[in-house]
Amino acid sequence: xxxxxxxxxxxxxxxxxxxxxxxxxxxxxxxxxxxxxxxxxxxxxxxxxxxxxxxxxxxxxxxxxxxxxxxxxxxxxxxxxxxxxxxxxxxxxxxxxxxxxxxxxxxxxxxxxxxxxxxxxxxxxxxxxxxxxxxxxxxxxxxxxxxxxxxxxxxxxxxxxxxxxxxxxxxxxxxxxxxxxxxxxxxxxxxxxxxxxxxxxxxxxxxxxxxxxxxxxxxxxxxxxxxxxxxxxxxxxxxxxxxxxxxxxxxxxxxxxxxxxxxxxxxxxxxxxxxxxxxxxxxxxxxxxxxxxxxxxxxxxxxxxxxxxxxxxxxxxxxxxxxxxxxxxxxxxxxxxxxxxxxxxxxxxxxxxxxxxxxxxxxxxxxxxxxxxxxxxxxxxxxxxxxxxxxxxxxxxxxxxxxxxxxxxxxxxxxxxxxx
Length: 420
Fold this sequence. Notes:
Residues 1-20 are annotated as: Disordered. The protein is 42% helix and 14% strand.
């Protein structure tokens, strides 16, 4: 990735410390207990001290960083950045290319996570920190009562959804959520989609591709026939449905048990996690919902030391253990099994939870985000919100066409070169 696709950053390590001089780094992150994680680094590396500056969340942190970049000062040395926001930050010349410092870490991460921080090119805009491989959660008691097994394919899922709703008109195996574009993007990713691509200074947009159309048509069909619900997730109604047994399945991510524990405490011991249903059981694939990297900003005067810290945080056994055990995130590193010895508390009976999660991460397909993901996601909320409300299957692929056009128009208006 070169030139106009992202402004080049200064590769020099300005402010190189003198021998014995202590380097001070600042780190913006919203992950919980990250100050305790960083204490382990500071104790072992007295010459490179990292101070954590807790942020409110991904979007506020991005806005704050972009403001600092535009002002020419005020950015941290190190920044936690959600994968989908990296192209936006790169386009604003906010993230430094650390390929020279950290490029040798590629083998330590799944291809999907590495692609997210390289945008498919030679530059490296961060080190993967945590990932969100998607997983399917289901009520074992409901499945056992109806003689159902965890669905291996999407056809199996549809059949189970119909069976469950027919047996009890109040129960649904899932819902189509028009409020969660990251969820839908993950499902499209599993089907083989990659909504953006970049070649030199030219971007491509493929939101309305065949793979995503397949996903949209599938869910439109299930919504139209009423086999699944059409209400968004993360509402008081949905939270209550998980707890009272009217929602008995959830297509989610590795972090799902924490949400279930908070929303459906009375159902503990009745859920199990499995791989996502597959389009082709002979060629298993997966998608991501969530995840972030640790990046060095272009305003850092200590690029080499910042790169050393983020390599430790995300690849050193001590860093990985602290991420998993203290920050409660799912490390992106392939070799994180030693840090994940016990299943999440909500699924304490499922001893193989992290084995399933590791398989889900391993088969996750690469996916490239674009510099205006916020525009595409907003278009998703609007267009799919109308489609879900209409309950007409034809409105689902039509919503994709709207997303595609809105995204392309925005990129052209912003000055990006678009292929085709």
